[in-house]
Amino acid sequence: MTDDRDLHQVEKDDVPPLPSSPSSFRAPLGRPAWYGASPTPSFNFLSGSAPNFSAASQRAPFKSRLIDPNREREHLLRCETKLGKQQARKNFIACLVPVLVGLVGAAALIVTGYLSIKKHDYCLVLEDNFDGPLDTTIWKHEQETGGFGNSQFDWTTDSANNSYTKDGMLYIVPTLTADSIGEAAIMNGYQLNLTTTGTCTASNTSDPVSCSVASNLTEGIIIPPIQSARLTTKGTKSIKYGKVEVRARMPTGDWLWPAIWMMPRDEIYGPWPRSGEIDIVESKGNMPTKRSQELANVVSSTLHWGPISYFDGYRLTHDITRVYRKFFNQKFYTFGMEWDEEGITVWKEVPSRPFFITKFKVDRYELGGFPRFSDNGTAIVSPWGGSSNKAAAPFDQEFYLILNVAAGGTNGYFEDGDISKPWSNSNNVTKARSDFWAQRNTWLPTWPSDPSQRGMVVDYVKMWQLGKCTS
Questions:
Q1: What is the pLDDT of residues 108-124, one digit of tens each?
Q2: Both 33 and 99 in a single domain?
Q3: Best exposed site among 97, 201, 262, 401 by fewest CB in 10 Å?
């Protein structure tokens, strides 16, 4: 094996010395006079001595790329012949065919996408462009303190600080509870009782969790540190099959949880999740730092259903859509949901671009693969046995619309593996809220001071019932 240093020495010794005199002649463009000299190899194949090429021999000889007029004239004359014209036609067809195939394929995709959109008759039951004050004949504020089953950290209010209309937009804005009652009251000595004030909207207004809380420093109980709003059409507008369209921009701020979703009006199959839940779109206020993260760059769509609360089949009916620039909290997007007896589809921007499709083909209970008995030995039976469409149930009843922005929670929407999460889902809501508030210096700087950026902004809402209008 030849030593690299020996090769280097050979190459160095074989290169002719450069002219050393300052008056030495230099060729045009600053080239030395010896540039272009003929090579003087001294390699003996019999003796195996090392090659002796000059530096010039390392370069390919210059070849002119100027067109030879004579050859060009011959080419033009040849093209004018019958054979030349035939070859030109063949070349043209060879180029044209792939182009036509591509155009036909693109047209086929467009037509297929258009034809895949179901053609139904619809009756408009709700259209709100928020051009004036909030229409309270349509929208109702849900006011609770307990976190709505998710152990969220927000107290929902009807305050104009948390929901209002302006310039043709609806704003749902989270604020710090300390801004309204003081920071000391969050921690100790403040009694919040929505039952007493007559404002609690929980189904059980005497529920101490949903409607009241008292801060106590000794016991570590704090007032929900965030105030926000939750607007619904419960009791005013609902549909059984149809479609919903909302144009909105999501909020910015760590641990904010915006949602556009639907809940059953009558819960004919029983309490959650037996009667279902339709999450049209949900997102997160955290800004992503990696493409793989599912934060403000992602919205998800989910159906919740199951025989009991800890057997929720949502993993079988869940999907996301992702953007790589202009995140969902940076520009307005249009979201739509189309729902009939055969399934539910959710799309972004245009109906021909769905990102969530679920078909009602299999008995819902069989689809879930639920066990026959719970951990305590109680038999688990299908809550949808009485439905005439067991594949569609529980999504075969009236649902109403909800718009809200929550903060935090221990139900797992914000997983414990999420970046810099200041609380643990394994803790009870009291401990989780306290940890969240105690570490506000980690998340509060991410909340814009401008409420229009911190909140979810809704341009319009439309909702249609499947079928023709009857009157």
A1: 877 766 666 667 899 99
A2: no
A3: 97
